[in-house]
Description:
Blueprint: E1 4-8, H1 16-27, E2 32-37, H2 43-50, H3 57-77, H4 82-102, H5 108-115, H6 117-132, E3 137-140, H7 159-170, E4 178-182, E5 185-187, E6 193-195, H8 200-212, E7 216-221, E8 242-244, H9 245-253, H10 264-270, E9 273-278, E10 286-290, E11 299-314, H11 324-334, E12 342-344, E13 348-354, H12 368-375, E14 379-393, H13 402-410, E15 415-420, E16 426-432, H14 436-448
Parallel strand pairs: 1-2, 1-7, 2-4, 3-4, 7-9, 8-10
Antiparallel strand pairs: 5-6, 9-10, 11-13, 11-14, 12-13, 14-16, 15-16
Amino acid sequence: MSLIIAKFGGTSVADYAAMSRCADIILANPNTRVVVVSASSGVTNLLVELTQESIFEERRIKLIKQIAHIQYQILDDLGRPQEVAARLDTVLSRISVLSEALSHNRNKATMDELLAQGEQCSSALFAAVLREKGETASAFDVRQVMRTDSHFGRAEPQIELLAILASEHLAPLLPTQRIVTQGFIGADENGCTTTLGRGGSDYSAALLAEALRATAVEIWTDVAGIYTTDPRLAPKATPIPEISFNEAAEMATFGAKVLHPATILPAVRQKIQVFVGSSKEPERGGTWIRHQVEDAPVYRAVTVRRDQTLLNLHSLQMLHAQGFLAETFATLARHKISVDLITTSEVNVSLTLDKTGSDSAGNGLLSEALLQELSQHCRVRVEDNLALVAIVGNRIASTPGVCRRVFEVLEPHNVRMICQGASPHNLCVLVSESEAAQVVSALHANLFEQ
């Protein structure tokens, strides 16, 4: 039997009506045996605020009440089944205990456990909605199988161990029931709760699909697939019926919010096709991401990723010398910093860093310790309030005329960095945050609307 893993984001499980629509999508396909859910819309943001330093007691209590209101409203619409009510009571009590503990000791492990509670609520509620519709379904604690390292806030999954644990604990349940589990969270070897970083629910679904040898992953969100760009920036943007893994990886990496950047990696490894569609309007179809596609145009989409940081490093040691870049990247690696784009000259190197996925609690990437360590062997300058705009497609590096069509649009704008040639699938420019929307709109008009 083909196995499908379906993932539903926060807006798709925001309330009882949304959960009921998603349950109908699940029930329409008997091959969908595993359902991965995010926290109900708004809950994770409230939990993140609970982790912040110097939060007043009055505000802490108000935040917990807001979380309880969201979850208990769904419970009320379900008719308050006793076992689910007891589960929610336990989770909400745990939120109170953890948030109180954080007010005295800002421990990252405690933060991750607190942030994981939203998915505990939504998975219990969604399984109850399926049972209400007559389906055999249960909530499964993904921490039994999603083994990670202990890098709290941005944990890395242990792929081989995940596959073994999923085969032992999860696969035997699938023939007789639908399993609802949590995205975004896991556990280290000591059983401590970890999180995969903001947006990690997509990644969780793909990792489970890889571990269980699924044939497809369905990502159900609030838009009908992946568009040529954000329709809010370019009203003439159109949905893309199918794209390749390479194109999707570029789009996810460079800002297409429909898909988490890491999602595509397990799918590529196992050639698992991915579907992106709207849980509100499933009849509209969506986008299929496949290993091979029939049409591979030069221009596929324009994406934007905001809140970027440009790290400029200057050192005369680079001049006709060896080892400077190795030392720089070793320093960044020690601090768990991932570099996106890089350009170099004789005595300068510029790196872009993505702040949007810093960690689950939204903590920044550039710590004082990192900056001090870099300053020991070069002069460091940090620029913020930047946005990365990417033209994604095929054969971009080898197609004449691409740069001309892009640069004629960029002429009125100040471009801080250009990267092109390392991949045949993208051309990236770094611009001011304030100009990003105008750049995206103009590029889309020139590349897709003529």
